[in-house]
Design a protein that fits this description.
The chain has one domain: Electron Transport, Fmn-binding Protein, Chain A (Pnp Oxidase, Chain A), CATH 2.30.110.10. It is built from three helices and eight strands; from the N terminus they run H-E-E-E-E-H-E-E-H-E-E. It is globular, with a radius of gyration of 14 Å. The mean pLDDT is 98.
Length: 130
């Protein structure tokens, strides 16, 4: 999981895919953080992406850096604890202008039943589960 987190941080931007009815939706994300041995992302509960995840928690993310990419498939679970939100915001202090650990909009979610596959055009795929 640490390797996945470090790679996604190196990417800077990764793309999160959700389902909206029968339509896939993909958007850029940049937050990735490990808290209590779980891999977390962050968004706002008022956003469509949050509503889509609550209806169908199965998501996939993809990031690309230095000729390699990772795809992470799994389920996202909302964690409403202030400690989890505060940890994410401490890791990304630039978000504190828009989000607070105590507000009702800040949402952090962790991956459950996740499989990450590292790929490139030259190396054999490598799979990590967490």
């Amino acid at each position: 999981m640490q390797e996945v987190c470090e790679f996604l941080k190196k990417c800077g931007t990764y793309y999160l895919a959700t389902v909206d009815g029968d339509q896939p939706r993909v958007r850029p994300f940049g937050t990735i953080h490990i808290f209590e041995d779980k891999l977390y992302i962050q968004t706002g509960k008022s956003k469509d992406v949050s509503k889509q995840i609550q209806k169908n928690p199965k998501v996939e993310i993809c990031g690309f850096a230095e000729g390699k990419w990772v795809r992470v498939a799994g389920e996202l679970v909302r964690d409403d604890r202030i400690d989890a939100k505060a940890s994410m915001l401490d890791a990304y202090p630039n978000l504190k202008g828009m989000y607070s650990a105590e507000d009702d909009n800040t949402e952090v979610l962790y991956f459950k039943n996740a499989t990450a596959t590292f790929s490139s055009f030259t190396d054999a795929p490598k799979t990590v589960t967490f």
